[in-house]
Amino acid sequence: MVLLEITRIFERRRAELYNLLEKRKDELKPELQHQIYGAMNEIDIFLKTIEYYKEKETDHEMNRALLVGPMIKDDLMTTIMKKVSKFKLKKKESDHHPHHAHHTHKDHD
């Protein structure tokens, strides 16, 4: 994975800068120390940004899997409920629309 490799490179670079500051702080001029701190902060921001996009990508993949999953195959209960619903609908339609009305001439007299 490319993002993982990039993350490792920048984490290593940040650790190197931190070690440089710790070991040679007394030798380094204040301006250079500030530049190193600035570089470490930029690396931190960059790594946090990568982490955000990795999480967002993972969330997107999970959401896509959750949306696609149920459409692939219904579980047994869903299938049964669909059949029951169709049966009830057909029964209601036949109750409201009788096919054969029996009228005789006596009814109209």
What does this structure look like?
By secondary structure, the chain is mainly α. The chain has one domain. It is 83% helix and 0% strand. Helix 1 packs antiparallel against helix 2.
What's the short story on this structure?
This protein has helices spanning 2-24, 30-72, 76-96, 105-108. By secondary structure, it is an all-alpha fold.
Strand content: under 5%
Q: Mean pLDDT, nearest integer?
A: 77
Number of strands: 0
Order of helices and strands: HHHH
Poorly predicted ranges (pLDDT <50, ≥5 residues)?
none
| Termini separation | 88 Å
SS-derived structural category: mainly alpha
* Multimeric state: single chain
Silhouette: rod-shaped
Note the total helix count.
4
Radius of gyration: 35 Å
How many separate domains make up the residues? 1
Largest sheet: none
Q: Helix coverage percent of residues? A: over 70%
Topology record:
Layout: H1 2-24, H2 30-72, H3 76-96, H4 105-108
What structural keywords apply?
83% helix, 109 residues, mainly alpha, 0% strand, rod-shaped, single chain
